[in-house]
Amino acid sequence: MGWLWNKSHDAPDQDKAVNDTAQPKADQAKAGWWQRLKQGLKRTSDLLRTDIRDLLARREGELVDNLLDELYTILLRTDMGPQAARQVCDRLAEQYRGRLVTLDQLLASVKATFLDMLRRESTQIRMATAGPTVILVVGVNGSGKTTSIAKLAYRLQNQGYRVLLGAGDTFRAAAVEQLTIWAQRLGVPIVTGPPGSDPASVAHRAVAQALQTGADVCIVDTAGRLQTQVNLMEQLKKIRRVIQKQIPEAPHEVLLVLDATAGQNGISQAQGFSEAAGCTGIILAKLDGTAKGGVILPIQQRFQIPVKLVGVGEKLEDLIEFDPVQFVEGLFA
Amino acid sequence: MFESLRTGLSNAFRALQGKARLTEANMREGLRLVENSLLEADVNVDVVRQFMENVSAKALGEKVLNSLDPSHQLLLIVYKELVALLGPADPTLPLKKEVNVIMMCGLQGSGKTTTCGKLARWLQERKIRPMLVAADLQRPAAIEQLQVIGRQLDVPVYTEPGAGDPVTVCRNAVGRAGQEGCKVVILDTAGRLAIDRELMDQLVRIDRLVQPDEVLLVVDGMMGQDAVQSARAFNDALELNGLIMTKLDGDARGGALLSVRAVTGVPVKFIGTGEHLDALEPLHPEGMASRILGLGDMLAMATEAQRLVDEQERQRMEQKLRERSFTLDDFKSQLEKLVRPGLLQRFMSFMPGMDQLRELMGDEDATLALRRAIGIINSMTPQERQYPEIIDLSRRCRIARGAGVPPFEVNAMLKQFAAMRDVMENLVQVGAAERLQAIQQLQQAAIRDPFSVLQRTKKGTGKRLTSQERERLRMQREKELRRRKRQQRRGG
Predict the structure, then answer these.
(1) Chain B hits for A267, Cβ within 8 Å
(2) What is the DSSP string of A272-285?
(3) What is the ipTM of this complex?
(4) Does residue B149 or residue B29 have the better pLDDT?
(5) CA distances for A99 relative to A67, A71, A94, angstroms
(6) pLDDT number for residue B15
(7) Would the pTM of this model clear 0.90, i.e. be above it?
(8) Is any Cβ of chain B less than 8 angstroms from the Cβ of A83?
(9) Looking at the complex, does the CB of residue A315 fall below 8 Å from at least one CB of chain B?
């Protein structure tokens, strides 16, 4: 079993990460979200960049199968999956096989491929033209829904919106308490229901209260569920219907919270939740760890659900806007 | 969308089917697809590469090249190697006389708190009094969550409201457990990123000062390539004793388990298969291997089935199957257990190639066929149920009238019963080869055409041919086929 123990690919990366976090705070604030995005993605970018440079430094010149195989391995490490990685490599092979390539050419090509996969459209939260905007947040267990909701509420609050939360996770122990604590910290109203009650009724009352009190945004939490749980997916549909009854065009956004550490199951999650709840966007949470979150590439490719926000830390302000162009630039900058 | 994931491997081996011998070239194709399948299952790249090297070396050996059924042999090698890497599972917790301390650690959202509750319940079932300790002071309401779980199980929960240092909380808790007569203390630590030095140091401090007897790493079953990095960080910082993989009740293939096993080398203690507190099971390396390979977790299916029937009945049923005296009455009682909302779809999710089918039909559709089958069996006499061979035209018409279905459905049901019986009888046989064959048979049928009824496999005629004879027969067959084609062309 010990055949992998000695192989260490990430040791240099870890040192870099320590340096990053040691940077002065003032710098971070000045550089703004772009800096933070870059930091969140730094691991992916470092990895891709240095390794590609290595590849070319070691054997400059001709693009051969060996080289492509190594590139394939590097891409796989980002969690983008064998299929998407193979596509990238095939495309490179087609363009450059047997030719002399420079780093710039290779990078430009990979970038172009990634940009093809990532949809370049607005990542803004779609707001209602009139009346409250309803945002439904869904995802598997432990993906970071509740924390992301708190961050999203904080973000919208800072943009001048009056936010209301609906604690629709009536299943998991103390989930309501968790969101309530966040609501208190943020000073936003929250609608809750007793444990085990119908989440659709909580959603209904949250929307009703938003209408009544004239709140700008109503964010509805849901219990974590696996996309294979038929009954729970039906429950999501019901929550959707209940919201729609009061505001026909609601929910204006259905955000899927995806764990950046997730592997290929992310694809199945995107599909399952889209079918049940009609996801309009993705929040990629926990991108501040060593995980790369590359699974969003095949997800974009297959379902065209735009990534709207990225979670890059545990603090309230650590939810930043996602921009595909910047994302790709961040990978290789 | 999953056809590539789930049937990739079966395709690889289908390519081998009908070929008498493995050449290095066609095997490489098969191995490449195995590799792909493992990568789709989120096994770490390096782990996959190592694994493939091992398997290739074995598979390219002479034994396989000269074996009579190469596809089976190759599959068995891959499968056995996987089982060896995943196992042996160790669903035990060694307990000493004094207070035992179990520390749970893992990333955020991996399912630590829920798993603490499951472990407590597991201990309770074994008449051991556990105590839960809320050492997660980071996440809002983590303490409340543990308290709710404690109330549900009637297990004491130790908390220190307003405490700042989890290390002291853990230490005090161990002291309290002794006073309260709790034999096992379960520490629910805060989730953390592997690169968060500060929080990792805190874990190390708990480890050093409280000296837990068991340190268990909780790993999310949906994790991707990063599983290696985080498991390595936890393994370096702490002396891990075991793994628990969670969220395996969905369609995640759980390849991360292989990665984590490879990195840490510690055994898998349990797997989490649901949100309820009783959903903690020992790992079956065989089932997990099939699952990672994308063969579908037939063992999980068998386990689920086991849950539906009590032990006695299960033994009776197995006995019957082994004696090959499985009747329509038994079939009916099994069908009746399946007619439960959502259950069938869950079963289908275990099986490769069944995904599309599952999506296509609602719960009603799924159980409708079963209810009809039950209705048909209900319209039979006891004798007919015992010996379905006696059902002739007039009996068939009578049964059809009784059940309110067209007569051909009676026939279809009987055919399906015969095919099912074969597969199930094979499944309970002791030999691994027979079981594997049954699994493959199910899977092939599902992939070929999910809507078709299970085909009965042809039994051997008892006559064995030499390879020369087979070759001659094959030539004859092909010649005949060519002749027919020629004729057809001329005719058309």
Answers:
(1) 1
(2) HHHHHH---EEEEE
(3) 0.78
(4) B149
(5) 13, 16, 10
(6) 56
(7) no
(8) yes
(9) no
- Cβ distance A174 to B145 less than 8 Å, yes or no, reads yes
How distant is the Cα of B421 from the closest Cα of chain A, in angstroms? 28
Tracing tokens 């947040």 back to the chain, one arrives at A137
Q: How far is A128 from chain B (nearest CA, A)?
A: 31
Q: In this complex, which of B111, B226, B255 lies closest to A261 when CB atoms are compared?
A: B226
Please, which residues 138-167 of chain B have a Cβ atom closer than 8 Å to chain A? Answer: 138-142, 144-149, 152
Q: What are the residue boundaries of the structural domains of chain A, listed by start?
A: 133-323
Backbone angles phi, psi at A73, to 5 degrees: -60, -45
CATH of domain A133-323: 3.40.50.300
Average pLDDT, chain A: 79
Stretches in chain A below the pLDDT threshold 50: 1-31, 57-60, 333
Give the mutation candidate from A256, A265, A269, A301 for the B interface (greatest B CB count, under 10 A).
A265
Which residue is associated with the tokens 């439904």?
Answer: A136
Chain B touched by A261 (CB under 8 Å): yes
From the candidates A141, A172, A229, A287, which should be mutated to test the interface with B, based on the most B CB atoms within 10 A? A141
As a whole-number percent, the residues of chain B with pLDDT over 90 amount to 24
SS3 B399: helix
Helix (H, G, I), strand (E, B) or coil at B280: strand
Rounded CA-CA distance B357/B348 in Å is 8
In a 10 Å sphere around its CB, with 0-12 CB exposed, 13-18 middle and 19+ buried, how is residue B1 labelled? middle
Q: Which residues contact A68 (CB under 8 A, 6 or more apart)?
A: A89, A92, A93
For residue B290, give the nearest of B48, B141, B36, B82 by alpha carbon.
B82
pLDDT the model gives residue B140 = 85
Query: Among all chains, which residue has been given the structure tokens 């009703």?
Result: A208
- Beta-carbon count within 10 A of B420 CB: 18
User: What are residue A283's DSSP bridge partners?
Assistant: A257, A309
Q: What is the pLDDT of residue B307?
A: 58
Binary contact (B224, A264; C-beta < 8 A): yes
Nearest to B345 among A3, A81, A230 (CB): A230
